[in-house]
Amino acid sequence: MKRYFVITDYDTLRVLNDPLRMQLLGLLIAQEATGKQLADLLHLSPSRVHYHLKELQQRNIVEIVRTQEKNGIVQKFFRAAAFDYLVDEALLPSLQMEPGLAQDVLVTQLQMAIARIYATPEASFPLFGSDSDKPLLLSGAYEFKVASEDLRDWLQRYRKLLAELETMETEFKKRMAEGLEDDPGHVFFLQNLGFITPQEYFVSTDQDLPDGYRWVNRGIVRKATSQDPIISPLNADDGEG
Q1: Scanning 14, 34, 163, 228, which has its CA 20 to 30 A from the CA of 205?
Q2: What's the mean pLDDT when you consider all of the chain?
Q3: Model pTM greater than 0.85?
């Protein structure tokens, strides 16, 4: 399999912008499979799965990697063409000319993240962890109303943090190659998505948890005690408290 697949036309982008096709792609990133095997796994009709596989194959997003004859029937084994799917920058300027295509790009990126989730073992998504072994997991949807210049400054700092991760990875791999690193390390997948929206979505007259509860992790709460500190869901995501 190739490392990257570059999306160079709108039709391919639209083919990928489908939840079932992205789920199929995620499974085929993980391993090869026949249409029948995928249909059984997803509890769908083989004809429906084969239709979507054909759409993906016509755009070279998935490939037939081998065939096998069984009971006189030739089985086709499919596999994703690449591990990661990228959008060609040449597509971006024209997105402004066609309403909805810019959203298609963002949705496709999210679908790629969904495919990555399905291709990752369940053990990578723990809900709980001891104080000494907090889950290395980030999740959540947030909305902030801040001054424009403050937001630009924050985005610059955030991009610098991402650049730090790239530097950390380069140095880690160098130490591994030189035999100077004992820590096997972790592969951490991070999906970025943020945009300006004209109005607030998370608007409520009551922003607090129900009485008697406190945050543990994002999406997880527990009955509070008098000794518990008051923390926000953002701090809960970091495993604090």
Answers
A1: 228
A2: 82
A3: no
